Amino acid sequence: MQVLGIFYYWVFAILLMIGFYAVVAKINLVKKLIGLSIFQSAVFLLYLTMGKVTGGTAPIYQDDAVNQLFSNPLPQVLILTAIVVGISTTALGLGIVVRIKEEYGSIEEQEIQEIDRR
Amino acid sequence: MTVLFGVFLLALLVITAVAIVRTQNLFVAVMLLGIFSLLIALNFFILDAADVALTEAAVGAGISTVLFLGALALTYEHERMVTRHRALSVAVVVCATLVVLYATFDKPTFGDPNAPVHQHVAPWYLENEPKYIDIPNVVTAVLGSFRGYDTLGEVFVVFTAGIGVLFLLSARPTAPNSRRRAEDESSGIGLREDLIPRIVGRMLVPFILLFGLYVQFHGEYGPGGGFQAGALIAAAFILYALVEGEERTLEVLPKNALIALSSAGALLYGGVGLAGILLGSEFLDYSVLASNPITGQQMGIILIEAGVGMTVTGVLLLIFHAFAARDQV
Lengths: 118, 329
Fold this sequence. Notes:
The structure holds 2 protein chains of 2 kinds.
Chain A: H1 2-25, H2 29-51, H3 73-104, H4 109-117
Helix pairs in contact in A: 1-2, 2-3
Chain B: H1 2-22, H2 26-46, H3 50-74, H4 86-104, H5 122-132, H6 138-146, H7 148-169, H8 179-186, H9 195-217, H10 226-244, H11 246-252, H12 255-278, H13 293-325
Helix pairs in contact in B: 1-2, 2-3, 3-10, 3-13, 6-7, 6-13, 7-12, 7-13, 9-10, 10-11, 10-13, 12-13
C-alpha cells in the first residue's frame, strides 16, 4: 500500500507537469486548453488521493452494515462540483478560441501576435 | 490486487497524457482526452469516490469531447506550429516537477486514517449526518446542506459561464461566408442517412434519459445527484442532436425553454435559501421547511438538487447549441 501511495502522488505530479508543459510550450490555443484540462484532472486526483482511507468505502450508509469505515466525503464534494464548473469554464475558453479564429483566421499564438503587431 | 490494478491504471493515465501532448492532430488529441477522462474516472472509483467517478465519466468522457469537437469544427484540426522555446519550457517544467516531487515526500501516508485532512470537519460530518439529515449518501448531504453555500456558488458559476458562451458566440462574425450552408444543402443533416447509428442512437436516447432521472432522484440513497443527472440528461439530448440533426432537437426543446430552465434552476436554489429566511431561520437552512427538522432538511436537499439538475442540463445544452449553430467562417 505504501508503494501505491507514493505512486499516486508521483502520478499526480507528473500529470500536473504534462498539463503545465502543454500550457506553456504549445502554441495552438486548443492544445493549451487540452493541457489545462489535464492539469485540472491532476488536481482532482490529488484531492481524492488525500481523501482515501485504507480499508474505507464510499461514504454511503447501509442499513445492514455496522461500524463502517468511510473515506473522507469532503474532497469528493469539492471535486464533484469542480468537474462541472471545469467543463463550463473550458467551454467559455473554447468560445473565445472560436471568436479568435473568426477574427484572426488563426489559433496559433505566434500568428495572432504577428497580426497584432502590424 | 487493487494495488496492481491501481498501478496499471495510473501508468495508462500517464501514457495517455503524454500521447495527448505529443500528437499534432487535434482530433486525435480530443479523442485521447476522452479516454483519459474514462481512465481517471476509474481511478476515482478505486479511491472510493463513486459520485465523482460518475460525474467525470458523464462530463469528461461525454460532453467535454463533444464540445471540443464542436470547437474544432469551427477552427481546424492540425497544429500549424508545434512548440516555441522548447528547451526553456522543458527546463522550467523539469524544475517544477522536481519541486512537486520533493513536496510529495512530506505528504501523509496514503490511506492513513490519522492524516490531518481526516481530523478537521469530515469526522463531524460523518458522525452527525444521520442525526441532522438522515439520508444514506453523506456526499449528497454535505453537498446540499452542510456546504450549501459552496454549491450555490458553483451553480451560479456554471450559469455565468453559460451566459458567457452565449454572449461570445451570438456575436456576428465580421467576415460572412456561406460555405457551410452550401454544404448543408447537398448532404443530410446529422446522421439521418446512416441507418445503423440512427436506429441504435434513437433506441439509446430514452434509456439515457431514464437513467438521468434515476440518478437525479436516487441521489440521496446512492451515488448521484443534480450535477451527474444534469450531465446525463444533456448527453441524451446531444446524442439525439447528433443522430437527428440540431433543428429537430431544438423543436423538442427550444432555446427559450433552455434559457428558462437554466435560470429557473438557479432561482429555485436561491429561492429555497430565501424561504429559510422567510420562515424565521438563516439563509439555506432547510430545517424550517417542514415541521420536523429532518424532513425539512431532506425536502430542501431534494429541491436544491432539482435546481442544480435543471441549471446544469440547461447550460450544457445551451453551450452545445451555441457551438453547433455557428457557421464556419
